[in-house]
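User: My collaborator sent over this chain with a note saying "see what the structure looks like." That's all I know about it. Can you take a look?
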Amino acid sequence: MDAASVFVWGRAPGSAVPLSPPEATLAMIRVAYSAAAVLARLLPRSAGYGLARAAAAVFWSASPARRRAVRANLAQVAPELPAAERERLAHRMFRTFAESLVDTWRDAAPDGEGTITIEGVELLQDAIAAGHGVLLWSAHLGNWELAAGALARGGFEVSALARAHANPGVEEFFDARRRKAGVHVVARCPGAREARRVLRAHGLLALLGDRRFGALGRAVPFFGRPARLPAAPLALARRTGAALIPGFVVRTGPGKYRIQLEPPVTARGHGALVALAATLERYVRAHPEQWFVFEPMWDEPRTGVRA
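Assistant: Without extra context I'll predict from the sequence alone. Here is the result:
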């Protein structure tokens, strides 16, 4: 999980062009990540959460584009809520994301408080036993970093696709933690040769499918409006014969998470992407404060959304 990417740098909302912060700032962000990870492991969890909430308040104040994107997304996800309640939900999303970072960093030094349960793990086991690779389609929901590590500890050989970060130091920071957790980052785009190799070898390849890897995407119904999701993962599953399994992780309490795996998607082509979007919509509707997409999800902005 990557606070610098979603809160400050990475990509401008609605743009596929990475922002380019000064080199000195990139280095400072990398140092800040390392220091925050050390503090998260040394401090009691409650104290770590307190610092995380303070950092979230700073990021909220300093990130008008991210605030605007979250407000617009929530207006589509929960239009029935009064504006004041959606505003509280937006604040809670920033805080929950920051607390989830603490949980991610504490995972390197287990204290007995954190637990991750997996429901539907037999779906992965059955697909692999049948001689298929598994493309695990997930989203920026809950704590995907902890989920990947938990699956690796459960005996699966987990590989992952991840978008490139504008800050090479931060990218290496997270990749090193993934390797330590037993998760191998194989590529930065779904069509990469190594991604195909993993699936053809009956491995498990995880990716987050609710944000485009580039400027392209295919429009599907999502909360009553067309939203563009990456279609390349579907072609990857089709070409390799991999099972396409949706799976999401939700936070159930401080340091506690549940991974929920869904039955394989059997539809093909555009129908598969529609089915994935419908499944994701169900989870986001149930846990909107845990859907950490800090850029516009829908191409056409809603009117009346303030910064």
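A starting point for your reply to your collaborator: DSSP finds eleven helices and nine strands in the chain.
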